[in-house]
Amino acid sequence: MEPVTFGVLGPVAAWDGAGGPLPLKGPRHRAVLARLLVARRRVVPVARLVTDLWDEPGAGSAGAVRTFVADLRRALEPQRPARAPARLLVTEGPGYALRAAPNGVDAWRFEAALTDAAGLPPARALQRLDAALELWRGPAYAEFADEDWARGERSRLAELRLGAVERRARTRLELGQAAEAVPDLHAHVAEHPWREEGWRLLALGLYRTGRQADALAVLRRARTMLAEQLGVDPGPGLRRLERDILTQDPGLTVPAAPPTAAARLWTRVATDYDRTVAADARARLESTVQLVRNLAVTGGGGLRAAQEHRLAAVTAAEEFGDPALTARVIGAYDVPAIWTRSDDPEQARRIVAAAERTLAALPEDGTHTAARGRLLATVALEMRGTRSPRGPRAAREAQDLARRLDDPTLLAFALNGAFMQSCTRAGLAARRDALGARLVGLAARHGLEDFEVLGRLIRLQARGALGDFAAADGHAAAADRLAERHERPLVGVFTRWYGALRLAAAGRTPEAEDAYEAAAVRLRGCGMPGLEHGLVPLTRLCLRLADGRACARQAAAHVDPDDDWGPYRPWIEPFVPLREGDPKEAAELLRAAPEPPADLLYEALCCLQAALALELDDRPVLARLHTRLAPAAGELAGAGSGLLTLGPVGHWLTAIGERLGHGGL
C-alpha cells in the first residue's frame, strides 16, 4: 500500500496512497498532527502537547490528547487490525512521534528539491525549482499562524520559499528568459518590498528585456521605499546595478545559451525550408498551420499565439480559391478542447463561416470525405454554447464519416465536437462521461495522447458532477501523468482547480479558499480567456453560498461590482442592488437576465438565479428554474465544470418546490 503523505505548505492535510484526502476531524486533532509534523519525526512528550494545545490546561487535557491521537491513528491507518501496533503515529517513551516517510511531507520534499537544484545545470535546476514551488498551497501551517510552537518553522519555511522564488528568477535570467521572470518578480516585490534581491532581479530582468527606463524607475522606487520606511540606503547590489545600467555595462547582458542539438536541427531545417519552398507555395501555408497547431498544445504564450495566427491562416487559404486546400488548413487545427465556452466568440463565428463556405464548395464526389468530416467537427467544436441545432448535427455527421472511413483521429476530433454540444440542457453529465470513456479507449488504442488527456479531463468533470469523486480523482491523476510525460502544461490548470473543487465539495471551506487562490495563480496567463475571465470572483461567490454560510442577501454583501465578472456579469448584476437594499431593482434584473449559456456552468448559474429568486420570493422565476434544473436532480451544481460547485442540485430543487408549494423534487 502506498504511504500516507502530509501537507503543511498551506493548510495542514493528509492524503492516502491514491491521493485522496484523509479525514482529520476537528481543529485539536489537526493541531496534534501539525505539532508532530513540526517535530520532524522526533518524539513530542504528552506534557509538551498539552502545553502547546491549551492556554490553560485542565485535568483532562492529557486524556484528550490520547483521544486525539487514537482518532488520528484510525484516520491515518484505517486498515490496521484492532490492537495491532501503529506504524505511523507511534508511542515512544513519554510521548508520540509521527514517522512519516522521508518524502512523505511536502515541506521535506520542497527542501530536498532546493538542495537538488543547487547542484544541477540551469535548465534542469529551473524545472526542479518550478516543481518545488508548485508544492505550496498557501502559507505554511496556515491555520496555526498564531501558535508559538509553529512560528519558528513557519518563518523558516517562508524564508526558504522566498529564497527559492528569487533563485528561480536568477536561473531564468541566466537562461535568457528575462521576459518570463519579470511578471513573477513584480508580484514578488509587491508582496515583499523589503527584499533587496527581489528589486535587483526585477530591475535586471527589465533591463534585459530592453526596458532600461523601467529598470531605473524600479531602482528609484526601491531606494525611496528603503529610505522612507526603514531609513536606510540601498545595499551594494542595488547601487552597483544602478551604476551598471546607467553606463550600459556589457556585463549586464546574458550571452545566449548554446543551442541544443534539437535547436540546431530546427534552425538548419527551417533555413533549408525557407530556401527551398517558394514564398507563395501552398505547402508553406499547410506547414504553417501545422506549426500553429503544435503551438496551441504547449500552453500559455503558445496557445495565445496559435489563436492569433489561426484565423490568418484560414483567410490566407481562402485567397487561393482552392476549397480542398482551405479544408485541409481548417481541419488541421484539431486541438483538443475541454472548455465549453469560446475564448473568442467572434473568431469562432468567422471560422465556422469559412468552414461552411468550404463545405458548400467541396465537390460531392466522395474524394473529400475525410476533409468534410474535419470541417464538420470544426463546426461542432466552434459552435460551443450557441444552442444552434447545427452544432449537434455537425458532430453526428462528423462521427458518421469517421466510422465510415475507420479513421480514429477523425473520430476523436468528432467526439470532441460532440462533447462541446453536450451541454444543451441540465443533467447531461452521464452523457459526457460516456463520451469521455469512448475518447480514452479510442485514444489509448491508437496512441492519440492529446485526446486521451482530453478524455480523462472530461471524465474528471463528469464524475465530479455525479458525485463520484473517487473515480474523478483517478482521472485527475491519470491526466497529470500523461501531461508530464507529453509536456502538456495546461492540464495542470484544470487538475489544480479540480483539487480546490474537491475541498469545496467536502465542505472544507477555508482549505478550499486557499486552494482556489493557488489555482488562480496557475490560471493567469494560461491563454484561455474564455475560462479565465470572471472565474475567480464567481468561485468565491459559489463557495460562500454552497457551504451554507450565507443566503443570497448575505452573499450579496460580498459581491463587488468592480470585480472582473467577465461573461458571468448578467447573472451577478441582481446581487448588486440586493446588497444596496433595493430588492425591486434586483428582481427586475433577475427577470431580465437571459437563460445561462449552454456550457459546463449552466447548472451553477441557474442555482445562483435560484438563490436570488428564493430571497426575492419570485415564483415565476422559481418555476422556470425548477423546470430547467429538474433533469440534473442527481448532480452537483457546477461540479461538471471541474472548477466549482453550489452543492447538490436536489437541495435547490427541494427549496424551490417547497416555496412553490409542490413539495420536493
Characterization of the model:
The structure is a single chain. The strands form 2 sheets. A 3-stranded antiparallel beta sheet has the order 3-5-4. A two-stranded antiparallel sheet has the order 1-2. The model has no long low-confidence stretch (mean pLDDT about 90). It folds into 4 domains: about 1-170, Arc Repressor Mutant, subunit A (Orthogonal Bundle), CATH 1.10.10.10; about 175-255, Serine Threonine Protein Phosphatase 5, Tetratricopeptide repeat (Alpha Horseshoe); about 290-490, Tetratricopeptide repeat domain (Serine Threonine Protein Phosphatase 5, Tetratricopeptide repeat, Alpha Horseshoe); about 520-660. It contains 32 helices and 5 strands. It is an all-alpha fold and about 675 residues long.
